[in-house]
Write a structure and sequence with these properties.
single chain, three-stranded mixed sheet, elongated, mainly alpha, 226 residues, 71% helix
């Protein structure tokens, strides 16, 4: 592995991602200790919302880990982490409702969500192979130009994936806040807590997208200074 001055441009992105992760962890833990007045667990919140939406082909399942919650459109399953599934906290309600927001996107054929799903294979290839090809090209001199250009082209799929992810996640959070208010999942100021949890989580996607952009800039600088 080499060190090139262009790597310094990644430092602000790393710091931003660290801050975003610390913020979401702190906000989550703050409201994970506050019980909702309705006393519904994350699993109950998800099942209630799905039932009220008339969605009967999506299951609610526990998954290991912390904040590993997600909706799997292929399996038609809302998977809630251990700290969300059985918890009746404000954080659990917010996270469970967010995943139901993704279900609603799926049911309504939300185009950005479909586009993100289509970009996953290309983004996985680009994130792993793109920077590697750029480094290979860096060592090959003039003959490595094609490797660098291919690597950068592959990495643009990563950028596109993160850009598309932003409206998908913000929209899911917006839907979640409307659902928990409309169905009376949370009461009064509890909705403000849910908004705080979801806003903190959303900022991690912003930080990740900005870091990916800085990675692309760094790869371009490598190409110009090889």
């Amino acid at each position: 592995m080499i060190f090139h001055p262009s790597y310094l441009i990644l430092i602000p992105g790393m710091l931003l991602m660290f801050w975003a992760q610390s913020r979401v962890q702190g906000t989550y833990r703050k409201y994970a200790d506050v019980r909702s007045s309705m006393g519904m667990t994350g699993a109950e919140v998800a099942k209630t919302i799905l039932r009220r939406m008339g969605v009967h082909n999506v299951t609610v399942e526990p998954v290991q880990g912390e904040l590993t919650d997600h909706y799997d459109p292929g399996a038609k399953a809302v998977r809630l982490s251990e700290g969300i599934f059985a918890s009746d906290s404000l954080a659990a309600a917010a996270v469970a409702a967010h995943e139901c927001g993704h279900v609603l996107q799926d049911v309504q054929g939300y185009k950005p969500m479909n586009l993100r799903a289509a970009l996953v294979p290309a983004a996985n290839i680009g994130s792993n192979l793109g920077p590697m090809l750029v480094l290979v090209g860096f060592f090959l001199g003039a003959a490595g130009g094609i490797f660098i250009n291919i690597g950068i082209a592959l990495f643009t799929a990563v950028i596109l994936f993160h850009v598309v992810t932003l409206p998908v996640e913000f929209d899911a959070s917006s839907r979640a806040l409307k659902l928990i208010d409309e169905y009376g999942i949370l009461q009064g100021k509890e909705n403000q807590a849910a908004r705080a949890v979801l806003n903190a989580a959303a900022f991690t996607y912003v930080a990740t997208a900005l870091y990916a952009v800085l990675q692309l800039v760094q790869l371009l600088l490598l190409r110009e200074n090889r």
